[in-house]
Amino acid sequence: MGLQVTEAVEWMKRINEKIHINKEYLTSLDQPIGDGDHGINMARGFQEVSNKITMENYENVADLLKDVAMTLMSKVGGASGPLFGTAFLKMSLVAKGSDTINHDNITRMLEEAVNGVKQRGKAVEGEKTLIDVWSPMVEYFKRVDRFKAGEIAGEAKKAMENTKDIMATKGRAAYFKEKSIGHIDPGAATSFYMFEALSEVIKA
Ligand code: ADP
Ligand code: MG
Ligand code: MG
C-alpha cells in the first residue's frame, strides 16, 4: 500500500519519460510568458535524476527523494531547479523514518513541500506558479480518506488548467503582466506530469 522504494523509483522514471515526451510542449509554454527553456531545463534535470537513481540501491524512500532533490538543485538551471529541488527535499525529510509511505505520510510530505516552495520562492497560491498545482493536491489528499489513483491525475490536470486564468505575479511570467493571462504556467504543467506519474505508481 502507498509508496515503497520500488514505486518511488518507478515514479521518478515515469516523470522522466513524461517530461522527455513533452519536452517541446513544456518549452512552448515557456515561450510566450518566459524564456523558452522550461522543457530543456526539466528534461536535463530528470535525465540526471534517472541516471543517478539507476546507479543506486535505496533502502528507503527518504534517501531516494534526497538524491532527487540534490540532483535537481545542482543540475537544473533556472528558477524551477531549486524550487522542485526544495519540494523533493522537504518530502524526503518528512519521509525519513517511515519504510512505507501511506496516505497520511503522503499528505504531510506534500504539505511540507508546498511550505518549502513558498518559503524559497516567496510566492503563495494564485500567482501562476507550480504552487497552484501542488497546493490543490495537498487539499485533495486532506479531503479524501482514501485516494483514487485516477482522481490524483484528474485533480492535477484541473489545477494546471486553472493557471491559464491567473495573471502571473512571480517569476519571469510576472514581467508579462496581463499578457500572461490565457497561458498555462510551464511549471504547473511539469507538476501535472509529476502527479500523473504518481497516480500511475501509487497503491491505494
Ligand atoms: P526560468 O524562469 O528561470 O527560466 P523555468 O523556465 O525552468 O525557469 O521555470 C519556470 C517555472 O518556475 C514557472 O513556470 C513557475 O511555475 C516556476 N516559478 C518561477 N518563479 C517561482 C516562484 N517564485 N515560486 C514558485 N514557482 C516559481
Ligand atoms: Mg524559463
Ligand atoms: Mg531560464
From TrEMBL:
Domain DhaL: start-end pairs: 6-200
Gene Ontology CC entries for this record: cytosol
Annotated organism of origin: Virgibacillus salinus
Catalytic activity: dihydroxyacetone + phosphoenolpyruvate = dihydroxyacetone phosphate + pyruvate
EC number, UniProt record: 2.7.1.121
Pathways involved: Polyol metabolism; glycerol degradation
Description of how the protein assembles with itself and partners: Homodimer. The dihydroxyacetone kinase complex is composed of a homodimer of DhaM, a homodimer of DhaK and the subunit DhaL.
Physiological role: ADP-binding subunit of the dihydroxyacetone kinase, which is responsible for the phosphoenolpyruvate (PEP)-dependent phosphorylation of dihydroxyacetone. DhaL-ADP is converted to DhaL-ATP via a phosphoryl group transfer from DhaM and transmits it to dihydroxyacetone binds to DhaK.
Official protein name in the record: phosphoenolpyruvate--glycerone phosphotransferase
SUPFAM superfamilies referenced in this protein's UniProt entry, alphabetically: DhaL-like
The organism's place on the tree of life at top rank: Bacteria
Pfam families: Dak2
InterPro entries according to UniProt: DhaK_L_YcgS (IPR012737), DhaL_dom (IPR004007), DhaL_dom_sf (IPR036117), Dihydroxyacetone_Kinase (IPR050861)
One Gene Ontology term from the biological process aspect of the record: glycerol catabolic process
Keywords: Glycerol metabolism, Kinase, Transferase
Lineage start: Bacteria, Bacillati, Bacillota, Bacilli, Bacillales
Record keyword Signal present: no
GO molecular function: glycerone kinase activity; phosphoenolpyruvate-glycerone phosphotransferase activity
PANTHER family from the UniProt entry: TRIOKINASE/FMN CYCLASE, TRIOKINASE_FMN CYCLASE
